[in-house]
Design a protein that fits this description.
Number of strands: 15
Shape: globular
Strand order of the largest sheet: 1-2-4-6-5-3
Oligomer: single chain
Order of helices and strands: EEHEHHEHHEEEEEEEEEEE
Distance between the termini: 19 Å
Length: 333
């Protein structure tokens, strides 16, 4: 599961970005299709286990990219009504080992590992989690990524760029807004042409959170700073010929079924953008879970701009509508 590297601009610096994502099946395995980054995938599904023990406070070092990513992702999730993810020591070990594996291999970003390669700890996200002691009966999903910057940035910027990049993927965003409770984050830096090259991986698991007022959306009312443009997913999101704009995820609980009917964005000048809508019944790549949907502009939005969103659909057959405004940042995912 690899991706061709694309060139883009992010946070006012030139960057080369790659992403990969996989959802997990039961038994600690991964059951997604293609990867994004590369790729898409749904978030983890399956039963939780009473033996899952998360940390009450994150163990990431102060000033680290991992802590920046953890804080930003939870801040964005909680603002929109999703539960906070809790750090899990076994998932941290699994993702850190995968980030180091990718950095050592230096051949692109992948969800999977190959037995016999240096640093191999398991083929899938679930395999690697189980290797480090995470319960095998709990499903594990994840995303991986990497980018190069021709300048030295702060660790906070590295962590934040990774999260904004993942949240800008039509198929990645579902993993990060899933009803999971556990998270692990790994990051490793090497040097290319004298500047840092960053590899990172996130695992989310134990999908049992009970969301209220479903369906929820991300972005939601008041969200700011999200990427206005993104590209490079494999499979390519339908009806795009290049980069697309900020995707909107619509998510419920694991037992819910979401169907999207229509979605628009309107800028401050009154221009209306009709969004492409995807759910599990309409996604040609079969990567979107039944409890989620996504709507996205087929072309990039404008940076540092406010948009009004209107979405309609059904959840378990009952009609719903959501309306809100959000503001993009000067970031490309």
């Amino acid at each position: 599961m690899k991706k061709n590297i694309s060139t883009l601009t992010a946070i006012s610096f030139a960057a080369v970005l790659a992403l990969a994502a996989c959802g997990g099946g039961g038994g600690g395995g991964d059951s997604s299709g293609s990867s994004n980054g590369g790729s898409s995938a749904s978030a983890p599904t399956g039963a939780s286990a009473p033996s899952v023990t998360n940390l009450s406070t994150p163990q990431y070092a102060a000033g680290s990219a991992q802590l920046a990513a953890f804080n930003l992702l939870n801040q964005q999730r909680q603002q929109c009504g999703f539960s906070a993810l809790q750090d899990n020591a076994a998932l941290d070990q699994a993702t850190q080992s995968h980030a180091q594996y990718l950095a050592a291999l230096n051949s692109g970003v992948s969800d999977t590992e190959v037995s016999g390669n240096a640093g191999f700890t398991g083929v899938t996200y679930g395999d690697r989690a189980a290797h480090f002691g995470y319960p095998q009966t709990v499903s594990v999903g994840g995303v991986s990524g990497g980018f190069y910057t021709p300048a030295k940035l702060t660790e906070d910027q590295y962590g934040q760029q990774l999260v904004y990049g993942w949240l800008s993927g039509v198929y990645h965003i579902g993993v990060l807004v899933s009803p999971a409770t556990s998270i692990g984050i790994g990051e490793s830096e090497t040097t290319f042409n004298g500047f840092p090259e960053v590899y990172a991986s996130i695992s989310v698991a134990n999908a049992q959170a009970k969301l209220t007022s479903v369906p929820l959306t991300f972005p939601c009312q008041g969200t700011t700073g999200v990427a206005y443009s993104a590209g490079g997913e494999t499979p390519t999101p339908p009806n795009t010929s290049g980069n697309w704009g900020t995707p909107v995820a619509v998510a419920g609980n694991l037992t819910d079924t979401i169907r999207l009917q229509s979605a628009t964005m309107t800028d401050t000048s009154g221009n209306v953008i009709t969004l492409q809508v995807l759910d599990s019944s309409s996604d040609p790549n079969n990567d979107i879970a039944a409890y989620e949907g996504v709507a996205y502009p087929k072309s990039p939005l404008a940076p540092n701009s406010t948009y009004a969103v209107s979405i309609t659909g059904t959840i378990n057959g009952t009609p719903f509508s959501r309306s809100f405004t959000f503001t993009t940042g000067n970031i490309v995912g």
